[in-house]
Amino acid sequence: MTGETTVREAVRIHGQDAQRHAVGELLERLRSDSGRLVVTGEPGLGRTTLLHWAARSFDAGAVLRLGNGPDGFTAVGRDGGRTTIPRATGTTPERLLAALRAAAGAGAGDAPLLVCADDAHRWDAPARAALGRAAGALPDGGRVGLLLSVAGHRSVDPEFAHLPVVRLDPLTPPQADALLDEVTDGAAAPAVREQLLAEAEGNPALLLALARRLSPAELRGHRPLPRPLADAGTLAGVAGRAALDGPDPRARDLLLTVAAAVRASDVPDVDADVVLTAVRHLRPAAPAPDPEQPPEYLALAEGRLRFLSPLLGRAVHATAASGRRRAAHRALADVLEARGHRLPSLLHRSWSLPGGAPVPALADRLAAEAADAAAAVSHRQRALAYARAAELSSPGPSRAEWYTAAAEQALLAGRPDRARPLLAAARDCGGPAVVRGRAELVRGLTELRDGPVGDAHQSLLLAAALLAADAPGQAATAALAAADAAWSAGDLTACLATLGAGPRPAQEGPPPHTPGRPDPVRDHRLGMRALLEGRLDRAAVPLGHVVDRAGSDDRPEGLLRSAAAALLLGDVDAARRAGARALAAARSIGSDALVPQALEYLAYAELRAGRHAQARAHAEEGLRTALRAGQRNTAAHHHAALALAASIEEEPDVVARHVTAALTTARRHGLVQAATLAEWAAARADLGRGRPFDAADRLGLLVLPGPRRGHFAVWRLAVPCFVEAAVLAGRHDDARALLTDFAGWAAFGADPQAAAQLARCHALLAPPDRADDLYRRALARHDEAGGDFERARTALLYGKWLRRRRRPREARDRLGTALAGFERCGAGVWAEQARGELRALGAASRGAGAGALTRLTPQQLRIARHVAEGATNREVALSLAVSTRTVDYHLRKVFATLGVRSRLELARMVEQAEKTGAQV
User: Fold this and answer.
1) pLDDT at 736
2) Angle value at C-alpha 194, between 190 and 199, nearest 5 degrees
3) What pLDDT digit, counting tens, does each position of 123-180 carry?
4) Residue 58 parent element (H or E)
5) What pLDDT sits at residue 920?
C-alpha cells in the first residue's frame, strides 16, 4: 500500500453467528461436562479469530493455548506463562489430560479448563494422533474442553475425523459491507466499495488485505485503483505460501488447469475429463495425473474436480507464471472447442492472448455467443463473455453496450456486487441514450433490491426517459419498477404519478398497445393505479388479465407480475400458483436474482391465507437466497414475513430478532412497507401474549391518522388487531374512529378476511344485545373466506364474551373450537389463551393436565421423557440417534420453557402429567 494507512483493525467478529453459537454452547457445557469441537474453513475466514474470541469469552475457568514444538507440546496460559509438555506424555490420553491440568496451575484445581489448539493440521502426525486420542477420551463430568482449528482447503486429518465440526462461512454482502465500514470509518467511495466487496467474495481477511493495499486517495475514489485489485501477492498472502509452493510440477499443472477451468465455469467444480485432457496437452511426454488421487487441495466427486478452497484456486491462478497460465487456457480452449462448447472455449482463447491490445474479431465473436438465447450457458457465463468482449474491443459504443449487457447478466445471476463495477465501466465509456437507459435500469433494479428505494425510484424514472424513444417496452418496464420503488417507500403520491405517467414514444400517436395484443406491463400499470385510486371496478379487468397470463407465461418476470397482481386483487390462491411457477421458472434458468422475490410473494400469499407454517418455510429459504444474492431489501421483507409468522407462536425472541433485522434495513433504505409489516408483527406478538396496552400503543402509530401512519396499502390489514387491543386497553373511541374506513376496505374486496374481521370489530364495540349476533355473523363470514387462524381468533373472543356473561356451555364450545383452530395452524401463544379460558371454566382442555409441557416441541418432549426416566445426556443421544450437543441444546430449552432448575424437578413435572392422564 502507498501512503499512510487508512485501515484499522476490526474490533468485533462480523457474521459467523451460528458458529459462535456452537462455540458458545461448548463453553457453557464446560461448567458441568467435557466437550470438544473442531473449527474449519478456508484461509482468511477467521479460524484463529474465533478461537481468540472463545478464549476471551470463557470466564468459568482456565484457558490454555496449545502448540506443538520440537521438544513437545507447549501450553501458554492467560498470564503468558509457558509450559512444555514432553512428547512422551502424549502416549496415553489420560497422561496428556493430566499434564494439561497441571499446566493450568495449581490454583485451577478441577475447575473448568478450555484448551485451544490453532492450526492443528500443521502438527506432525504423532502430535495430531495424541491430540485426537485425548479429544476422544475426555471424561464425562471432567469439565475439560478441546477447541481445535484446522484448515478447510484440505481434507480433515483422520486423527480428527471423529470429532464434531463447525465450518466457517464467507460473509454475506451486508456483513462484508459492515466490516469494511468499521475498518475504514466509512471512507471508501461507493464505486471503490463495490469493487472491494466483489473481489473479496465474502472473505474477511482478503477484504482487509485489499483495503490495506489502497492509499487514502485510492480508497476515496480520487485516484484509479490498481489493476488487478486482487493481485498475486495479496491472494498468496491470505491463502498461504506453503499451500502454493508445495506440490510437485505435475500436481501444479493439474491445480493450475482446474483453477483456469473454474474461471469460465458457473459452478465451483469442473469436468475432470476436460481438465485431464488439457493437462496432457500441456505436457504430452509426461505421465498423466492419476484422476483417482488428486492433490490434497482438490476433491473429486462424480467425475468433477473442485478446489476445497475457492480462494486457494484463485491464488494458484494468480501466482502462476503468465506463460504457464496462458498455456493452460489455450489447452482448455482447444479441448472445449473440439467438444462443441463454444462460449467457454472462446473465453479461454481470450485469456490465452498476451498483452492488452484490442482484438475486435474475438470481441465480436464473444458478444455474439453471449447474445445467443439458444446457447445452454448461464447468466454468469454470459456476463463474463460480455465483459471480456468489452475489454477486447476498441473504445466506442460497442464497449459501453457490452459492459451494460454484462451488468444485466450479472444482476440476473444474483451478483449485484459484480454488476455495479460493470455499470461504472459502462458509464466511463459513454454511449447512446438507449444504452445509458439500460444501464440506469440495471442500476435502479439493483438499488430497489439492495439500496435506498428513493434513489432506485429516481434511477428508474431516468431509465424510462432514456429508453422511451428507442425501447418503449423496456421504458414501460422501468416505469413500472419505479412505481414499485415508490410503493416500497410508502410514497402514494409518487406511486400514482409514476403509474399515470406511462412512457410514450417520442412521436405522436397512441400508446404502444393494440387490443389484439396483450400488454401485461400496461395492464398492470393501469390496474394498479385504479386500485390505488379506489376504483376496484376499473382495476379488476386489467389486473385480471395480468393474473390470467400466468397460465401461458413461462418467464419468471411475467409470472412474478401475475403473482403481484393476484395479491393486489386478494386472490391468494392465484398468487400462490403464480409465485410457485415463477420460483420454478427462475430456478430452471439459473436466475438467482429472481428466486428471493418469488419466495417473497409466496410467503405473503401464505400469510394472507393464514397458512403461517408454509409462509415461514418460504420466507426462511427466501432470506437465505436474498442474503446470498446481496439483496438486503428483499431480505428485510423476508424478515418481516418471518416475524409475522412467528408472532402467532410462542417465540417472542424470534419475533424480536426478525423485527429488529427488518427495521434496521427498512430505516436505512426507506422501506416503509417492510417497516409497517415488522411493527405489526411485534404488536400482534404483544397481543397474543396478553399485553394489549403495548400492542395498542404500537399499532396506534400505524393505523391512526398522522404523519407516522404506516404504509398506505398495509396499515388497514392491522386495523382488526388494533381494535382488539384498543378495546382491551379501554381506548374505545380510537377503535370506533377506524371502523368507517375499514368498512370501505372490506367492501373493496381485496382482502378475503376483511368482512369477517369487520363484523368481529363491530362485535367488540357493540352493546351486549347486539354483540352475540355480530360474533355469529363474523364466524359465518369466516366459513366463507376460510383460514383457521382468523376464525379461531373470532371464536376465542366470542368464547371470552360468553364466559363473562355466564354462559359456560356455549363458551366451552366456542373456546374448544378456537383451541382446535389454533393448534391446527400452530398458533401456540393463542392456543395458550384458549386453554386459560377453558381452565377458568373448569374444563380440561387438550393437554391442560400437562401444563407447560404442551409448549414443548416434539423433540424436546422426547428428551424430557428420557431424562425424567433417569437417562444421562449421552444415553438420550444414543437412544434418539442424535449428538449429545443436540441433547444439551434442547434440554436447556426445556428447562427455560418449564421454569425448572434440575433434572429432579423435570422428572416430577413429567410424572405428574402422566398421572393426570395428559396426552403428552
Assistant:
1) 92
2) 150
3) 998 899 999 999 988 888 888 999 999 988 777 788 888 899 999 999 988 889 889 9
4) none
5) 33
- Report yes or no: 145 and 29 within 8 Å, Cβ to Cβ: yes
Give per-residue burial for 864-899: e unless 16+ CB within 10 Å, then b: bbbbbeebbbeebbeebebebbbbbbbbeebbebbe
Give, as one character, the DSSP assignment of residue 750. S
CA 254 – CA 282 distance, rounded (Å): 10
pLDDT in tens, 224-258: 889 889 999 999 999 887 667 666 777 888 999 99
Cα–Cα dist 396/390, whole Å = 10
Cβ burial, residue 394 (10 Å; 0-12/13-18/19+): exposed
Whether 308 and 297 have beta carbons less than 8 Å apart is answered as yes
Radius of gyration of the chain (CA): 32
CB 648 within 8 A of CB 612: yes
pLDDT value at residue 214: 93
Reading phi first (left if > 0) and then psi (alpha if -120 to 50, else beta), residue 186 is in left
- Residue pair 308/154 in contact (Cβ under 8 Å)? The answer is yes
Q: Residue for cell digits 400482534? A: 684
pLDDT of residue 221: 87
Q: Cβ neighbours of residue 138 under 8 Å, at least 6 residues apart?
A: 34, 35, 36, 97, 144, 145, 146
**Angle (nearest 5°) at CA 562 between 559 and 564:** 115
Q: Going by C-beta distance under 8 Å and a sequence separation of 6 or more, which residues neighbour residue 849? A: 913, 916, 917, 918
Residues whose CB falls within 8 Å of the CB of residue 361, separated by 6 or more in sequence, listed in order = none
Distance from C-alpha of 838 to C-alpha of 819, rounded to nearest angstrom: 9
- Per the prediction, the chain carries an average pLDDT of 87
CA distance 20 to 27: 10
| Ranges of residues in the chain whose predicted pLDDT is under 70 | 1-6, 8, 10-11, 90, 106-108, 242-243, 245-247, 501-518, 843-852, 854, 858, 881, 914-920
Q: How far is CA 256 from CA 153, 232, 287, 295, 494, in A?
A: 15, 14, 17, 12, 54
| Residue 692 CB contacts under 8 Å (≥ 6 apart), including other chains | 686, 724, 725, 726, 728, 729
- DSSP classification of residue 270: E
In degrees and rounded to multiples of 5, residue 157 shows phi and psi of -60, 145
Coil, strand, or helix at residue 305? strand
3-state secondary structure of 290: coil
Q: Which helix (H) or strand (E) holds 165?
A: strand 165-167
CB 309 within 8 A of CB 297: yes
Buried b (16+ CB within 10 A) or exposed e, 7-41: beebeebbbbeebbebbebbbbbbeebbbbbbbbb
> From the CB of residue 510, how many other CB atoms can be counted at a distance below 10 Å?
8
Whether residue 876 contacts residue 865, with contact meaning beta carbons closer than 8 Å, is answered with no
Q: Give pLDDT, residue 916.
A: 52
The CB-side HSE value for 516 (13 A sphere, CA atoms) comes to: 0
For residue 576, what pLDDT is reported? 92
Instruction: Please write down the long-range contacts of 137-141, taking CB distance under 8 Å and 24 or more positions apart.
Output: 137/93, 137/94, 137/97, 138/34, 138/35, 138/36, 138/97, 139/34, 139/97, 140/33, 140/34, 140/872, 140/874, 141/32, 141/33, 141/34
Number of Cβ atoms within 10 Å of the Cβ of 2 = 11
Report the SS3 class of residue 291: coil
Provide the 10 A C-beta neighbour count for residue 223: 14
Residue type, 640: A
Which triple of cell numbers denotes residue 756? Answer: 369477517
CA angle 718, 794, 801 (to 5 degrees): 115
pLDDT of residue 107: 64
pTM, whole model, 2 decimals?
A: 0.77
Count of Cβ atoms closer than 10 Å to residue 639 Cβ: 29
